[in-house]
Each structure stands twice: as structure tokens, then as C-alpha cells.
TrEMBL record:
Domain Replication protein A OB per the UniProt entry, residue ranges: 87-183
A Pfam family of this chain: REPA_OB_2
Keywords: DNA-binding
Keyword DNA-binding recorded: yes
InterPro entries: NA-bd_OB-fold, REPA_OB_2
Name of this chain's protein: Replication protein A 70 kDa DNA-binding subunit B
GO molecular function, one term: DNA binding
């Protein structure tokens, strides 16, 4: 993302991943040259945009000593935990910030295609002591899940984007192939949450000990819009319309048998 909030999706393949994984760090500013640019396939444009970069061995990456912490902080739009239900089973990409207080053992499932996937659940809590289950799939196990497992006693701040919301276990969130993670990032939201953790460390420990978040919560449903609400006095009119449609269909059915 540049300072005008223009975004581009960059991809690194194969052996180049290891070469750049310690060189390209989130929230840093870089001058990148000699990357290839190509049009994104139509089926992926809604996710990554119309054009895509490919970073390879000959790409030059130079870090610039510029501090854009305030700008980066302003680019985040976090979904509150109590509004997650509004995005259940939708295509909306959401971002959240929370404190990791627990991580469950990994487990394996077989997908519809027959492949085996590794899954691990992380429990996040916000400043209202509300919890949500974050399900992390496959590629996030080797790095992100291991980091959380090694550090959840320290209650790390997690900022994660490009998540989807489902009705599993009430309301839960899960990673997608393009999800991103940042731990204890130097942004204002994370600093405020870190200070809150320090002030409420004992209460957070009690939340972890009680583990009330393990019980399945009933799924919340979004309130319908005004245009979706029918007044009681208008219900009879709807029944007349339905009856007329049913009668019309019945007449057509009888005619087809004549």
C-alpha cells in the first residue's frame, strides 16, 4: 500500500520465499524494483485486484528509513466482536484485533476433495472480555500457530485481516488463503490493548481458568432492515397474493393435463 492507499498484491514463489521472508516485514517501507507485473486472472480479481506483482530472485528490495506508524494504524478497520454475526457466511473480508489467551491442540479433517487439512483453534478476547474462536488452517500452523502456542501465556496482541465469519460454535472466524497476521504491531490500537492487558491481567487469567468460552454459544442473527419488516396489518394481504399465485399455478397444471 502506498501513501494514497493504493494496494497491490505481490506473490513470491518457491525458493524465493525463504530469501525474502526475513527481508520483507509488515509495517516497513520499501523501494522495490525489477518485479514483474501482470493481469490477475478474472476469478481472482475480487480478492487480489486487477494487477499482481511477482517478486523473484532478481527483484531489488531496499528498506527506507521512514516511520509511517500513524498512517498504517489509520488503515485498519476492525470489526467489533459483537458485530461479527452480521457477516456470517458472507463474502466479506473482515479484520479484527484481540488478545490470544488460549490455543487448542491441532486436529485434522478430511475436506470434500478428500485432502487432509490441519486445523488449530485460538481463543481471542477483547476489552469487553468477549471471546471469539479463530480457526487457523494449514499454512498458518507452521509459523503463526507455533508462535501463539509458545507465547499465549504472555497474552500477545493479534491483528489479523482477510478472515471469514461462520456460524460454527455460535459465531467464529477462520483464516483464508490470503489472511495476514501481525503480532504486537507498533500501532495505536495494539498499544491501547496492551495497556488494557497489563491492567486486567488477573481477570484475564480467570477467564482462561474458567474456560467458559469452550461452551457453544447460540448464533446471533442480524436484525432485518426496515424494508424487510412486514407490519402485522399487511400479513393478510400477503396471504391473498400467495393464494392467487397458488391458484394460478394450479389452473396451469390442470390445463397441461387436458
Amino acid at each position: 500500500m502506498d501513501m494514497e492507499r493504493n494496494k497491490v498484491h505481490a506473490t513470491i514463489y518457491d525458493t524465493n520465499i525463504q530469501a525474502f521472508q526475513d527481508q520483507l516485514l509488515q509495517s516497513k517501507t520499501y523501494l522495490i524494483s525489477n518485479a514483474t507485473v501482470r493481469l490477475t486472472k478474472p476469478q481472482y480479481r475480487s480478492t487480489v485486484g486487477e494487477i499482481q506483482w511477482t517478486i523473484f530472485g532478481r527483484t531489488k528490495v531496499q528498506e527506507l528509513q521512514e516511520d509511517h506508524t500513524a498512517f498504517i494504524s489509520s488503515t485498519y478497520v476492525f470489526t467489533p466482536f459483537d458485530r461479527l454475526h452480521e457477516h456470517i457466511d458472507s463474502k466479506t473480508n473482515i479484520s479484527i484485533i484481540g488478545v490470544a489467551i488460549d490455543i487448542k491442540p491441532k486436529w485434522f479433517i478430511h475436506t470434500r476433495s478428500g485432502a487432509q487439512s490441519c486445523i488449530q483453534d485460538v481463543v481471542l478476547v477483547n476489552q469487553r472480555f468477549e471471546t471469539v474462536l479463530l480457526t487457523m488452517w494449514d499454512q498458518f500452523f507452521e509459523k503463526e500457530c507455533i508462535y501463539i502456542s509458545d507465547n499465549f501465556n504472555k497474552k500477545p496482541i493479534i491483528v489479523t485481516s482477510h478472515l471469514k465469519v461462520s456460524s460454527f460454535s455460535g459465531v467464529s472466524i477462520s483464516t483464508k488463503s490470503n489472511s495476514t497476521f501481525s503480532f504486537n504491531p507498533p500501532i495505536e490500537h495494539a498499544t491501547q490493548l496492551h495497556n488494557w492487558v497489563q491492567e486486567n491481567n488477573e481477570q484475564l487469567s480467570q477467564v482462561f481458568m474458567k474456560k467458559d468460552y469452550l461452551s457453544t454459544k447460540p448464533t446471533k442473527l442480524s436484525s432485518p432492515g426496515k424494508e424487510q419488516i412486514t407490519d402485522i396489518r399487511n400479513i393478510q394481504g400477503l396471504l391473498v397474493v400467495v393464494s392467487a399465485i397458488t391458484f394460478h399455478l394450479s389452473m396451469n397444471t390442470q390445463a397441461s393435463h387436458l
